[in-house]
Amino acid sequence: MENIRYQIETELALDEFVSLLKRSTLGERRPVDDVERLKAMLKHANLIVTARDGELLVGVSRSLSDFSFCTYLSDLAVDEAYQKKGIGKVLIRETKKAAPLAKLILLSAPKAIAYYPKIGMTRHEHCYILEELDNLK
After folding, report:
1. pTM for this model (two decimals)
2. What number of other Cβ atoms are within 10 A of residue 81's Cβ?
């Protein structure tokens, strides 16, 4: 979309982030009612790429990166009204451009599993997660 402006932002407003999460399918899997946790998510992310239609936040790529070996793209959210227009792909491209030497890694939301291979990303079968410390044996 030609009206969409992409940029790296270091100070993304919490209310904008929450609003976008709720307007995207990602809000279903994020703690949108836990303000302190959301503040920490923004504070500790060190690479945030946004997509804006005028002043309206319509997409975000929120990542953690060492800018040399790996970039973990934790949140890729696009407003449902703006989906299927290539915004997610551009957000991924801009995230990768910000850390070109780093391998970009993400865990797909269930509804997006089919999307990533279509845009050229490779599925990796060797991912593990630990949600609760007590589960570690």
Report:
1. 0.93
2. 11
